[in-house]
Amino acid sequence: MQLSYRSKVVLTGFLILIIGMMLIMLSESFVRLRQWIKHGGVIEDILTIESSSGLRIPMPNKVQGAIRINSIGFRSPELVNPKPYSVVRLAFLGESTTFCSEVSSNEATWPHLVWEKLQAIKPSVKFDFINAAVPGYSVNSSLRNLQYRVKPLQPDIIVIYHGNNDLSLDTRSLAIEQDIYQGSDKEQSWLSKHSKLWFLVEKNLKIKQVQKEVSHKAKLDFDSKQISRSFKQRLKKLVRESQEAANLVAIATFSYKIRREQTREGQVKAANSALYYMPYMSIEGLLDGYEEYNRVIREIARETDVLLIEGETDIQGNDTYFVDSIHFTDAGSKLMAKRISDALLNSNDFKRIIQSKK
Packing angle between helix 196-213 and helix 5-39, nearest 10 degrees? Predict the structure, then answer.
């Protein structure tokens, strides 16, 4: 039976629709498989609310992709408790840039690499460590984390690495006040909540949009020294309480991909994820903000007499070392670990701690 022209058009349209749906389903499956291979799912799937502290923490004994959580909720090896006196215990406080979801394994996180190097160079002393960082944490979150979860584990050395989340926190309320930011960066459509493919499409479209708008849309007007005052107060409190908990406290300046010497195009590309979460910021605003928060970190280190770890720009601002605006690749994680371990090994306080354990 020969089909009419109208029937052929309808059939062709139907076949195109079926093929399109199949391609979408295949793409969705590929995105989910790729995410599962790399992370085992989304990072929120491994987090839970701890009743005693009210904090979001990694689920004890959770394994998801390359991420393994120990029995007490840290991305680090199991600990002996109570801690033997002969052990030097390190604790790392921070946000996603210390938790390191983007690297290939637990062993590729920079806290693990710091521990590994210290143990190799000082084999006569037993080291262990706690990666107490959690994605989304601010300085205040780490303070609560220290009080409830880290201090009872008797760390000898605490390393603090914070900056980006507090900059976002401090600028967001001002952006809302100036009426240039109206909602949450985490608002999602119904489709993006149920489809990983559509979520990535929406995210990439938003990134491209804010990158296009970065030069001509109204951006946050702020005095960097004024905006950092609250950060200084919070960070100083965290440092002081860390000093009560450990014999050595170190604080590292914050590394980021965007640099002043880059071309404008390079800066916009390097600022991709920062602009996604802070779309109200200009390129100059981001640079001013990061530089100001690092100035505060240096100032706090002087005022509290803790070990300052410099060298944030020693990690070059390119795709070799950064996955996005702030998160490290495996190669970047290695350089971050070198920053931290070299500073500790050259510290007289660190040497005294080692000597006391022999």
Answer: 90
